[in-house]
């Protein structure tokens, strides 16, 4: 009688020191666990070998990307339960080292080894990044950006929809359309920057050109948009031409460190600063400060993590670093504000859009799931699984306040002290 699921659940219960809150469906067709609970489908023994060789998040991620494990039912419900096991363990929960001192746990691990079969570790899925060289050089940043953004413009059209905006939308109501929410976000940025006809805007990390086009079309500014992605730049240039805005919008494949044609009246940096890195963040802020004219404004839209009691213990998310944003780093909002001010900026407003990003990510997941077959065809099964898992997990992280996203408005205030910010700033006039 098939019993792999029952054996696996019993072993995992012993390892966790508590009943596994998931139902398991194993490769031999057997099932075990709470009836009606979200189900983790373990398709083969190779999944166990991945977990044994890389216990925790990276092993699970490799099994998911390779298709060795999947879920049956609500993906968000499964991820919520797994988060409780991997990322939100109680302070009094025993560590793996402590657990392995328990003879029953050592027996459970031995049982997993026997169930897993051949001891050799499976090769990581081909979608996993192999890190080379130093972090955040111009070369390594180009490589990291290419990994994430050069997946294929057609694939991103499925996920992002017609707006082609790959950052947090700004929702009036949860049941609004993604396109309206993204248009409202671009308009919010434009109003915070105080854009008026004839000004020059630098859009750092311009993506597929949406902010540049909106600012030029709706506010009459001249825009330079820069990206490190060749595919994004080609797509953005075509959109600019189709809108008849080639006289007002220039799209460059260029590193922000190489921009020398300031001063600009305003700079937008939307979802780009996460790629900069903690060691280079002050230089990033100083570079943008130098590119602004006196009283020029910067709108820095950036994901933030929660601060640690001991910042020396912080480590990057293994799954996201290996499969999604290589070399990406998140900082607490307090650190970001401090670095901007150290560079010379006067920070005038900080607005949290955490709940807005959760809504945005859930819409992106729904878009991908609705066109799953086409999405797989445009990329690969593994790449599509990466994006589905990453976006769903991030939606939950925003909902549970594990991460946030903030718009920071900063000004290069002149010596006179005249910032140009209205007295009632939240009107954004």
Automatic annotation (TrEMBL):
The active site is at residue 394. One of its GO terms (biological process) is methylation. Belongs to the CFA/CMAS family. Residues 116-137 are annotated as: Disordered. Keywords: Lipid metabolism, Methyltransferase, S-adenosyl-L-methionine, Transferase. It comes from the Bacteria. SMART domains: PKS_MT (SM00828). It comes from Streptomyces avermitilis. Residues 155-414 form the Polyketide synthase-like methyltransferase domain. Gene3D superfamilies: Vaccinia Virus protein VP39. GO terms for molecular function: methyltransferase activity. This is Cyclopropane-fatty-acyl-phospholipid synthase.
